[in-house]
Structure formats: C-alpha cells, structure tokens
Amino acid sequence: ISVIVYNVKYQFTNPTQVITSIRTPSAAPSAPPSNVRLSALGVDSIMIYWDLPRQADRNGLIISSTIHYGISHSQNRTSISISANQQSYKLSLLQTFTLYAVTLTVETINGSGPASPVQQILTEQGTPTVSPDHIRAVDVTNTTVILLWKDPDVGELRGILQGYYLRILDQDFNTSRQETVTKMNSIIHDGERQYTVQNLKPYSMVEFTLQAYTSAGSGPISRPVVAKLLQGIPTGPPTNITIRNIDNGANSIFIRWQPPHLSDRNGVMTQYCVVITNKITQITIYHSCIPVKGNPTAAQNLLVTSLKPWTDYLVTICAATAVGNGKWSPLIYHRTQQWVPSSPPRNVTATAISSSEIRVVWQPPERPNGIVAYRLISYLNNGHSKEVYNGYKTKFTVQYLTPNRMYTFGVIGYNVGQNLTGPSSLNATVMTLKAPAGLPTNLSVISESPNTLTTSWMPPQPHQDQAPADQYEISYRIVTSFNWFSIKINSNQTHFVISRLHPYTNYQVRIRAISTTTYPSTGHFSASKFVITQQSVPSSAPRNVSVTLVNSNNLLISWKELLPQDENGVITNYIIRYSYDRFKAPQRHQIQVNQYERKFSLNNLNYFTEYVIQLAAKTSAGIGPFSKSIRIQTDQNVPDAPPENIIAVVKSSTSLTVSWSPPPLDKQNGIIISYKVRYQSSVTDLSKEIIVDGALRSCDLDNLEINTRYIMQIAAVTINGSSHFSYTITAKTDEDVPGSPPTNFSGFAIDDQSVNISWLPPQIPNGQIIGYKVQYNEESKDIMTYINISTPLANDNDVPSHFIVDGLKSATDYHFAISAVTIIGEGIYSSPIQIRTNDAQKPITPVSKSLPPMIVVIIMMMILLLLTPLILNLSCTANYLFKYSKGIKKISDLQQEKLMDKLENQNYLPEMGLYLDTLMLKAEDAVLSIEEFFQKMKAIIVRKKKQSALSKNASIHDIKYYTGRCRGILVKGHNRIITDGVECKENGNKFHEEVTDGVAKDINNIKLNDMNDESDCYVVTECPNVKYAGQFWQCYMNHGSSVLVLLADDNNDITELLRDGWLSKKSEKFDSIELTVNDCKSYLKYYLYQVTLRTDDHVEKNITVYHYGDWQHQGIRSSDIMFRLHFIHLSWKDHVRRKPARDTPLYIITDPGCLSDSLVYFVTTSIMEEMQTHACINIHKYMERIRHQNISITLNKAQIWMVYSLILEAIEEELVQYSAKMVTPVSEYLPKDLSCSVAIEDSNGREKEFHRLQSIVCIEGLQAAGVLQSNQIDSDYNLDAYHIEGPTNTQLIAATGVGHQFDNLLNLVWDHDLSVLVTLCDIGTSHSKEKFKTFSEVIIQEVANFTISEIFLVDRKTNREKKVRHYHYSQWNQHEEAVNDRNYICYIQDIKNYVTMGNEIDDFKIMVFSRNSWDRIGVFLGIYYQMKVEKSENELPTQLNRYQIMRRLKSQNAKMMTSLKQYQYYCELLKLYSGE
Fold this sequence. Notes:
Blueprint: E1 2-3, E2 17-18, E3 34-41, E4 45-51, H1 55-58, E5 64-71, E6 78-83, E7 88-91, E8 99-108, E9 111-112, E10 119-122, E11 133-138, E12 145-150, H2 154-157, E13 163-170, E14 175-181, E15 187-189, E16 192-197, E17 205-214, E18 217-221, E19 225-228, E20 239-245, E21 253-258, H3 262-265, E22 271-278, E23 284-291, E24 300-304, E25 312-320, E26 325-328, E27 332-335, E28 346-352, E29 358-363, E30 372-379, E31 385-391, E32 395-398, E33 406-415, E34 420-424, E35 428-431, E36 441-449, E37 452-458, E38 471-478, E39 485-490, E40 495-498, E41 506-514, E42 529-532, E43 543-551, E44 554-560, H4 564-567, E45 573-582, E46 585-594, E47 599-602, E48 610-619, E49 622-623, E50 630-633, E51 644-650, E52 656-661, H5 665-668, E53 674-681, E54 687-693, E55 698-701, E56 709-718, E57 721-722, E58 729-732, E59 743-749, E60 755-760, E61 771-778, E62 785-789, E63 801-805, E64 813-821, E65 833-836, H6 853-883, H7 893-905, H8 908-912, H9 930-958, E66 978-979, E67 982-983, E68 1018-1022, H10 1029-1039, E69 1043-1047, H11 1053-1064, ...
Parallel strand pairs: 68-74, 69-73, 69-74, 75-76, 80-85, 81-84, 81-85
Antiparallel strand pairs: 1-2, 3-4, 4-7, 5-6, 5-8, 8-9, 8-10, 11-12, 12-16, 13-14, 13-17, 15-16, 17-18, 17-19, 20-21, 21-24, 22-23, 22-25, 25-26, 25-27, 28-29, 29-32, 30-31, 30-33, 33-34, 33-35, 36-37, 37-40, 38-39, 38-41, 41-42, 43-44, 44-47, 45-46, 45-48, 48-49, 48-50, 51-52, 52-55, 53-54, ...
Helix pairs in contact: 9-10, 12-15, 13-15, 19-20, 19-21
C-alpha cells in the first residue's frame, strides 16, 4: 500500500512512499489439473501427462500432485504423490491387456483440490503363456482328420485370441505344411474347438501341433498328436512294363511289370488287372485280374497265348488295393512276329498295253502273316518257265515281247523274314497287240512365202505284224528352239501346207504314221528336213528408243536393235520419222539410217518447238511398225526478231503510251516473259530502259521532259535473253504551261500615266510562247488588273521584249508581275517589281518604240480568235450557276473571271473532262450567298475529282492480271507493289496517287489452271490504315468480288472496324463510301461478316468478309490445319459460287509485312482445283518454282509445310475428288523442328506420317462443316441437356432440370456411358427400381462444402455393372456463388486432375448438372477449361483466353452465361486461381 501527498493549489506531488504490504491467506486449489493425457507403454506401463491449474485457480503454492489409479471395474485405487515441479509420470508393473481408470489432484499446504475427470486406458496385449490343451484326432479317413482341443483361458491369452498355427508333418514321406485356424474356418462344439484337416496322403502317418497367437505374437507349441490314415486306391499305374515275344513270337507274348511308385500306392497291392486289345479291330481279346503272389512290392509277370502272327496289340495294366482299382497305365503297342503266308496272291490279271508290253497286276494274300515278296513266273509253250520279276510290288510290266503273240503268267508269294514260300496263284493268259504302221517315205519341204512351208510324202509299206496307218503326224520346230509343234491329218492326204510360221526362220520338219488300233499308236519319225522361210517386214520397232536434248535445238536419238525373232529378215536400214506443228500446220520429215547405226543427231531444229519422234526398222520386204511416239520440246532461245507494229501515242506533256505487237510466232523462240523498252530524249545522249511484263502489249513512259522529242525501241525477252531492238520511232510530248517566269523583268516610268516594262523569255518555256500576261495593282489596293500580250515583241531569246502600260495614275506606286503563256495556258508569275509614275506637271514623252496601231489591232484579233472557245465554255458555266442560284441577281465580270480562275487553276476541267452540269446541286442551294455558293461548288468539285480520278486509275492501272496459264497477283497503289521482283517498303499504308505500271511476276509459268473468260484472279494487298481506307473501299467497290478474304489479326484497322461496327450497330463513313456490318458469325478461329458498301449515289454492294484472326501465329497445331482448311474451302467455294466476272478478282488482305501468307491461300486453292481434272499433280514442282522465282514474296518452310498439310487434310476430309498421282519429296523443305514429313505415292498407297487431326471445333463450326447436326439431347429424360465441345477431347454433357432429378440424371449417365457426375446443387437419392437392380453410393472423401463418392449401378435386365465417380458441391450463397471460393477452386481442380490423370482421357465422359442454373454450369466449365493439370509436364498450354472460352460455350448454349454478375464472378475466380 502506498500514499501520495500533493499541493491542492499548485498540484505539486511528493515522491511516492510505500508504507506497508500484505498478502491474502492461501487455500486449497479450486480446480483440478488440466489437459490430462494418457499413453500406453507396452503391456504393463502407462505414461501420464498433465498441466497445473491456472494461476487464478491454484489459491497458493502448489506443493505436490497426486495420481489415483486402479483397474476400471474395481473399487480399489492406488495413489502416488509427486512433487509439484513434475508434470508427467510412468506407471509400471501393471496387468497386461487391462483397462485402468486414472484421476489427478494437486495440493497446497491447505489441502487437496478437486480431482480431474476419470480417464481410462487399456494396456497393450501380450503373447499367450500356454499352448492349446487336450488335442485329439477323430473321424480319420484316407484323406481327412478332425482335430478337437480346448481354447486357453482369457488370462493365459493376455489378449484377444486371433487364431492358431497348425503344423502338419507326414512322417512317412517327411513332408510338412502349415495352416492357419481362425474363428471363421473352425467351430466350437461341446466346449471344444473343431477343425477339419483335408488333402492328406492316404495310408500315411501324420503328426499335428498347435500354437495360439494374439496381435502381439504367438505362444508355445502344443504336444504333438499322431494319426494313421486309411488305405485308398492307387493314384498311379504300374511301372517298368515290358513285353517280349516267345516261341518265335507267332502267337505268344510274355509281360512283366513293377508296382506303382511308393507315393502312388496308397495302401497294400492285392491284384493287377491286364487288358489286351487288337489295335486294328479294337476288339478286346484278353481281360483278366491276377492276384498278387508273394511280396506285394515285388515285380509281377504274365504269359499270354493264342495270339495271331504279325498282329498289332495294345496292352494296359492297373494296380488295386483292398479299396479298389487304381489308375490304368498308358497303352503299350506291341506286334507279334512274322510267319509263312497262309493263302496265295489273289486276282492275278494280265493286259496287253502295246505290241511289246504286257502289264500283270495282282493283290496280296488274304493272310500274309508278315512282310510278303512276290515272284512273277512266265510259262513258255515248250513247258519251261522263267522268273521275270522278284520284289514287293503288286504289278509289273513285262517288256520286249513279240508283237501279236500269246503269253501265260503266274505269281508266288513268300515271307521275307522267315524265307518261307506260300502257295502259287492261278495263271493269266493274254496276246500282245500288233505293231504300228511303218515309216512314210520321200518327205519333201518347200518354202513359198514368209509364213508357210509346203510338205509332201509317200505312204509306208504294209506288213502282217503291223496295223495300217489311220493318220499322219507332221512335227516341226525352229532349229534354235526345243519346242516341237505337231499337226495331225487324215491318212488319205500325202501333202500339207504349214502356216503361221516366223519369217526368215530355219525350221526342222519330220513326219510319222499313226495307227489308232495299236499302242503305241505312233511309230518312228522319218528323217528331218531343214528349210528357211522367206523374209518379211520387221514385226516390232527398235527397242529402248530415247531422245535427249543435247542443246537448245539439237536432239540425239538412240536405240537398240530388234530381238532376233522380230527382225523377220536382214535389217537393211532404220527409218527416223519426226513431226511438229508449225503455226497449226503439221510438218513431217523422214530420214533413213544404215543398219549399223544406233545413234543419230537431229540438228538445227526450231527453238521452243515440240517434236514427235518415231523409229522403225526396214528389211528387203519393207518397213516394220514405228515405235511409240516420244514428245520432246527444244529449249527456248532469244527471239530472232523484235516486236512489230510499234506505235507511240502522246498521253500528256510528261508521258507517252507505247504499244506494240509481239514478234512473229516463228521468231519468238520461246515464251515472251517481258519486253525491254528503250527510250532517249533528243536533247541528251543517255538512254533509259524499262522492263514490261510479257503479258502486256503497251506501257506508259512517265516523268518525261515537256515538249521534247523521244526516240523509242523495243526488244522481246525470253528466259534465254532478249532479241535485238526494233526499228526506232519518235514522238514528242505535248506542250505545257511554262515552268518558270520570264527573266530580267524590269521597268521604268515614261510619264505620269504610263510605264515601260521589259523582259526576256522564261528559261523553261515548255513549248512555244504565244504571249505574256501582265498583272499590276496600286500599292494601296488589292484590285488586280491584267493585260494580255498576245505575241512576243522579240523573237531572239537574248533580245528583251518591251511593253508600255498606260492609263495609270500619276505619282502612284504600282506593283507589276508577268507570266509567259503557251497554248496550254499561263505559267507562274515573276516576282513583283515596283514602278512609280511621274508627277503630272512633268509629262514624259511616250516611248518612240511603241507598236503601230495596225499591228496591235491584228494581234488583238488573233487573241480573240484563240480565246473564243474558252470564253464560250466559261459563259455556259456562268449561266449554269446563275440558273441554279436565284439569290444571285447579278454576277459581275470580275466575279465571273474570279470563279473561272478558281476552276481552271484546279485543273479539273481540262484534265478530267469534268463539267459543272454533272455536279449534284440541290434546290436549297439556290438561296446561298455568292461566297457560300462558291464554297459549295468547290467542295463538290474536289470530291468529284477524287472519285473520278480514283475510278479512272483503278480501272486502268490498279488491277491487272497475268493472262497466261497462271493466276496473276498484282497489288497497285499500295505500300507494297509487286513489279519486276521489287518490293516497295514504305510506311503509312497509303494508296499512291501516282502508281507505277507493273504486274505480278510470272511464277515461272506454273500451270495451275487455264484462264478463260470465267476465270478468277487475285488482288493481294496489305491492310490500309484509317487515313486511306476510303480510297481502298472505293477501289474495292469498283473492282472487288462479293467475297473478301482477310488474313489479319484482331488489332488490325479493318478487323477493328468490322468488330466495332457489328457491336455498335453503327455505319462508318469513308469519303464517299458508307460501310455497314449487318451480321457476324463466329467459328472460334474465324468470322463471317455480312457487309454492305453504299456510295453517295445510293449504289450498294453486299459482300461477305471471311476473317481469319491468327493466320500468322507460330507453333501451328494439327487442329489449326483443319480450321484453316475449312476457312479456305468455305471462302473459295463462296467466291466461285457467285461467279464473278473476269475483271472482278478475289481480294486477299494481309497484315503489314505478311503478303506471303496470301500465297498459302492462292497455292492451296489452285492445287485443289487442279486435282479435280489432271492426271498428275507434282506439288514438288509447284513448291520448287515458287521457291526459285524472282519475286519479292515467297513461301517459307513453315508455309510450305502448311500447304502440304492443307492438301492432305482436304483429301482426308474428301473436300476434293482425289484422282491424281502426287509426288511430294518434301523433307528438304520442312523445318527440322516440325515432327511431320509427308509422302504421297498414289491413290491406292498414299503414306502419311503426321497425327490424325482432332475435331476441336465449336458447335457452330462443326455444323457449318457438316460434322455435327445438333448438340441438344432429346427430352426423354425431362432435362435440358446439351453436348458441349470444349478445347480438350473430354466428352461432356451439361444439363439443368426442375425439382429432384436424380432419377433422370442416373438414366442419362447410364445411357450415355458417362464416367463422372458433377452436381452443383442439392439432389435427391431416388433411383429407378425398374431400371436398376442395385444402387449404392459410398463416400470416398468428405471435405468442407463438397463430397466425393462412388455410385455403383447394376442394370436389372442385362446385369451389366457400372461405377460412376460423383462430385457433389451444394454450398452456395444467395448470389449463386460458392461459399468458399478457394474451396470451390480446389473442388474443380480435383475433378480436372482425376479426369485427365486418373485414367486414359478417351475413357472419360463427364456430366455436369445444376438445377435450373446455367450460370453455375458456365462458371464451372470456364474455370475447368482454363485449369492446368497438376504435376503434368506433357499437357499442352491453354490456347484460348477466358473471353474466347466463354464465347465458345455461349455459342453452343446461349443460356449458359446470361448474368453480368456471374461473368464477373467467373473472372474473379480466374484471378484467384492464377494468383493475379
């Protein structure tokens, strides 16, 4: 306790001083120890932990803690006191597997506090201390034994009994095994546990022991129990069975065997059963059981008699115990020995087969009794016999007999092994046939033509042993061949003509007679005759004919000689025939070459001409057939003549137009690829040349000197060079207004009213100076006075001209300026000079050099004559203005002159031929003031000038195309102009007002398609910016087709214009063109805009813009190829379908610097068209020529790969009729980092080494491609369900419904074989009992706000089973948002990981359901498609941003995201997921 003293007035305090201190008395604690924790340590120990009470509850100094414990079901407790600074204790020497109760108190000096709540703990289990007792074996059979014993007491077990280990030992065979006895496979009967041991060995002594075990381990092993099993039947047959023949083996055998193996006996052998079966007849001839004699384990034997010799038998034996017979042995094959045949050979027959041969046939004896051989005996007429055959055969042909004689034969069989002879057969008698007729005589062969031989002969002489001739056989062959040809004719003929022979061939001919009643029917041939047929023309052309182009106009023809069989005589010459078309008049020539030549040169042929070469051989008989035509074209050469009909037309003061005709066809020597135009001014020695495309017949020469004569020449150019230049023509450019003012302009005052001015002609007159115009004004006034001086006063340029200006005011300063005038008009004025007139009082005499009045009158009349047309024109214009402006009552001459000056100075009237009556003036313009009217007129004229100039330039200059066999590409008036291989790289994207003539470079004459009146051409340009967009749309309005292809990104000016025009529904105005976007369709990768162009004259043009946004991006996947192919196919077919005129090209617009992208489109469409009609398309040549042609835009390797991929995919998608053979060795063009190589062989064996394209297209894109008709699922399920196509291959169905739709969900999941069910709302658990026999759902994981379970379904009709993974999220707030955003993201991530990494992706089909909320489904799918799979290195990165994914989802179901708040929530979840 402390006291503070302070002064009340001044608030001063004294230092604090402690007077005294006091403590309240202590008491017993008011609370027990807290956080008491128990832990079992082994079988007899417990560890106790606790915390002291709070300081406020101790009520003093804690001096000790006390533990009170005991067995839970007992009232006895033991207390242990522990010092206060100890907060854990170990209780030891406890009972095993016993439940203990524990409480704690703490004490102060005043006593003990309350006890803590009672806590219980069970000590751990121990191993049993005793073994099972009273074990006995009962009901012993030959394979089973029943064991009985009593379980140990619970106290002896020291835990929960888990089972027993049963060890089984077979004492006879010393084998053992162990079985586990549990409560499940054993029973308790009359207080004893009973267990049946099976699969024991019969008739064996078996020992059993038991060992109890708990979860802590096993106890001691019991005493063994032994049981002897009963006998069983043998499980194996007798062994070592042997069979042998006795007594020569004719009809007895001796059998010996051993008992079965010891392990197969299963008892004592009492008898053996023997069965013997005839192998052929399957008849059992012996079956008997023989009792065992003597030792049952000794060998047994048996003698079997009364068998047949040389017979196959099958023997089998089985052993038997007292229980029954055992297993039979495998069948043992045995054959008895041979013996003498018991019967003779049967059915002996003899047949005469010729005049010297008899065939004898017989059958074996009926009982051969072994292997039998035969002796064939021939019996002669004198009583003797002769053995003609000895062997095993049953037939023999006896030869070398006498024709027409009688013979007798018999057969005897004998046993080979025993050499015992059997009985003889019956004899057979037969007579030999007669011999054939003899040889024809006097054979004669004569050659009468190249293909025939005439033969003649005499008949053979008759004989008694020979048959008469019925036919003759003429046989012939080529001497060098082994093949004979035969012809049979009747016997009444003695001559014959052999036809169809080879000319000039040596033949061998012979003849013989044929008797059809004998065998053989033919005798010997006569002596051969040799003769050569006559010569004929060759039957084939020379072989291996080839034609090689040696140089530009020389051909080398080579060949090989004919095959000998085709020469048909002696080759005397070779005939070379060649032809060619010369200006549609065929020319044919023929050359004869001697027979020893194999090469020939055709020299000095026409250049660039296709020749047809054929070759034939010639003999003395004539010329043979010509070879197949070989077509070969000679090379191009420089033209032999220059262009003709050269005409120069003056276009303006600085330009000429030169036109010409090509050189004569016979002088062109190739394709004219360009023309050289050389021109030179007459005032200089330097000449210039320009190159003009070969398709053109005229060109403009611009930037020339005014009023200057030019000399021009033209040469034609082929790929080999240019011709000599043509004859010269001359033309002079028109005059123009002077390019500079008169020089040395000066003056002085003559008197008070006149001044004298002088000057020299201008340095740049630009034509004949016909006069001068002087303007002057007083220094203090702006009113200008003009004086026209019609003729120069001096013809010499070095002599100044003079003129006196009078009628001036005295003592006044004037400013004078002068300009020169040509017939075209006046030039620029000189710098003003100031002259002051004299004072009035000092008159100055006029200059004496004034012109005579008569001359002045004449000059004025000439000027009036020249200016009359112009004055009339200006007067008409003024009257026109006065007519349409009622508010203008009077137009003064000065005002009229000012108006005309304004119009003429703009150069509109003379240059454009534009008249004021073509201007659009309205009725309300009549109330304008003069100044307002002039402003209005000027604005209209300026706009009209732009339109007219652009239209004129566009039709004449901007769009041209190559008129040969290749589509031309030309960009005129843009920032990149393809002309003569030069690419103009300027910034600003503007249309040049002055364009340079030129066309697209001929891409080496690639034959893509024949251009005809209905053909299309391309205009390729970079996208113009906003500043020059008006000029572009005006040009497109005049020339473009109804289809526009836009290959530009989304940030391009035109793409932004189209997108903003569609979203805002507003039209955009560019100069005189108004652009309106009427409709837009999104196909994920590209868009279709329907656009209307409208001029101020209300002329409309409706076009379709095909826009592909990321054409230039790198790393193109296989799915991009499919999108690009469909984009090209749709746009090109749309363009062709509308059938534009020849002058209506297809516009292709690219990003700046990306003009080569148009070539991908151009080449792909050209090849696709070409493949429809041509027999061979060599894409390699397309690529090679484009790669080496001399123009500024070329295809890089990636773009070449894209063309190949597009063509191959077009074949796969059947967008083109594939009827072509394609050769595409492309490996050298493809980038090394592309895992794709392509090689197409033919229509039957095309190879492809790239991945099959995946159909990753939005629903509308699939529908447009004809792949998918509708994505909505039928309403049989009472659900609003749709197929959803996402950016991955996972198949997905999204659905909503009203009420509890779990039954319908399960039906939809089952019918569509879905693997994953995602529910985003509360659902019921009902299911269709008619459809599913079994339904169960097991929760796998339960997390805050969502659960993961597995549904198991069994179909009632088919018993088919199915498992479905169920992800259920039900925690939503009132704004349709998840209660925990992070938890919701984890929920979606878990689904993503399971679907992507759990199994193969193709096995997964997902169902997403939310009751009456498509917004929830849209948010879920948006996040799902943006997520990446955790720990996945192979997953492709997401290619779409969140806007594109949501747009894709909405394109498939517009109800998916209708709430802006839900879209914002979707974006917030994405930021949370990505960590932004």
